[in-house]
Amino acid sequence: MRYVFSLFVTLLLACGSLLANGPLLQKLQQIKEISGIRELKVQPYTEYYEFWYEQPIDHNNPSKGTFKQRVLLGHRDFNAPMVAILEGYGIYSPAESELSKLFKTNQLTIEHRFFNNSKPEGETPWRDLTLKQAATDQHEIIQALRQKIYPNTKWISTGISKGGQTTVYHRYFYPEDVEISVPYVAPINLEKIDPRLEKFLSKLGGTPENRKLLEGGGKDIKWQIFDFQKRCLENMDKLMPLMQELTQAKGYSFNKVGGTERAFKLTILEFPFAFWQWGNNINDMPQPEEDDYNEIFNYLVKVSSPDFFDDKAIENLQAFYYAALTETGMYAYNTKPFKKFFKDEPEPIITFDFAMPKGYENAPFNTQQLQDINHWLQTNAKNILFIYGGSDPWSATAVDLKKNDKCRKYIKANMDHKCRIASFENLTRSAIVKVLKSWLTGTEVEEEIEEVLIY
Question: 43-52 contacts: CB < 8 A, separation 24 or more?
Fold first, then answer.
């Protein structure tokens, strides 16, 4: 009898588990805003689905209509934590993220409104592309899944670069949607053209501030970069035929920036930002005594590709530019160091206004909103852990937490825009994981890791 009773209890518990962990597909199908569910095979998840979530174009005025937003969901267990990847652009990859690997989580990935296929039909309603509208998109999806599928678990939001910004902005507008946020390499700009970006970039590769950077050629890296830019501008007559050849081969067009020659000059101005952002090696740069202009050109476009200024590329990223020039901030090009090569430019500062949608070139910038978000980060924000690369130009506007010890910031020196938790040395990486685990479990952070660790 004891055996039969034990078997009955075991079966009852097993059935209860099956009921509690009912089929994920059926749960998704019961959410009325979800359609177009398609199963994918993505390791290591036991189930993985792509679906579309119907959103209002304007959450304040549903009469404007709706659009469908692309979402991915990787499932391990209904009681496992959830990592919500808030993309700043289209969905980059369905693969398991760093955080999902670290904590063996489920994973939700949300494409940003008005990118890729997550757009309304017809002309894009640019005025509805705001930080608040995008955050509300994410809020609706997160709440639908939290309430109806994953009510008993902790949630972590995260994103990279513009996705990191998106993560911060969502948390600002909806601080209770998730328990933890991990923005990677997220600039917190405070103005339309934040001057800290140019100031920071002008110092990268110099010898002050006890920086230990790659050496080469007997000059600071920043001056080698400057000399290379100058060399390119001085030899425009030899390099432009190569630019024309590349333009024809790739099918580029540069009408938005003012023609092929101006696009080439902008490519040269972009060179330092691109060099540092993606961690290029100064020792690959052609030496000053070398006169192989094919090699010079190939190195330039390998580091700073002209396709950044191609009409189609700008059009594909127009949602990024609209957001940057109305709400999130951007950098600009200062032509003063090369003024003799830019005599035709009406202003010494070249902005990205050329990338704005037609008719929105003079759209106002919401500086006050950025100030409000920054104040919140320095006072009331909690359980946000920031990751930065110390040689990434976007670190110029890294968050300044002031005395807010409820959040953390970690900077990996000599690391670029690809900086992740795995980029840190073992000691710091362990400290980061301990902080996140303490937030997940609601336990106290150990004293020795309360300080911000910068390596």
Answer: 43/96, 44/76, 44/96, 45/74, 45/75, 45/76, 45/96, 45/106, 45/107, 46/75, 46/76, 46/77, 47/74, 47/75, 48/72, 48/73, 48/74, 48/75, 48/94, 49/24, 49/25, 49/73, 49/75, 50/94
Residue 312: phi, psi to the nearest 5?
A: -65, -40
Q: Bridge partners of 410?
A: 387
Do residues 97 and 85 make contact, with C-beta atoms less than 8 angstroms apart? yes
Question: Which are the contacts of 133, defined by CB distance < 8 A and separation ≥ 6?
Answer: 58, 59, 113
Tell me which amino acid residue 206 is.
G
CATH ID of 23-184, from 1.10.760.10, 3.40.50.1820, 3.30.530.20, 2.40.37.10: 3.40.50.1820
Whole-number Å distance between alpha carbons of 415 and 70: 32
Q: Name the band, by pLDDT with cuts 50, 70 and 90, for residue 442.
A: confident
Kindly report the backbone phi and psi dihedral angles of residue 305, in degrees, each rounded to the nearest multiple of 5, phi listed first: -75, 135
CA atoms within 13 A on the CB side of 267: 29
pLDDT in tens, 59-76: 999 999 999 999 999 999
Dump pLDDT digits (tens) for 263-317: 999 999 999 999 999 999 999 999 887 789 999 999 999 999 999 999 999 999 9
Burial tier of 180 (Cβ tally within 10 Å: 0-12, 13-18, 19+): buried
Q: 47 near 75, Cβ under 8 Å?
A: yes
Q: Boundaries of CATH 3.40.50.1820 in the chain?
A: 23-184
CA-only gyration radius of the chain, Å: 25
Please give the Cα distance from 349 to 332 (Å, whole number): 7
Nearest to 91 by CA among 182, 160, 186, 179: 160
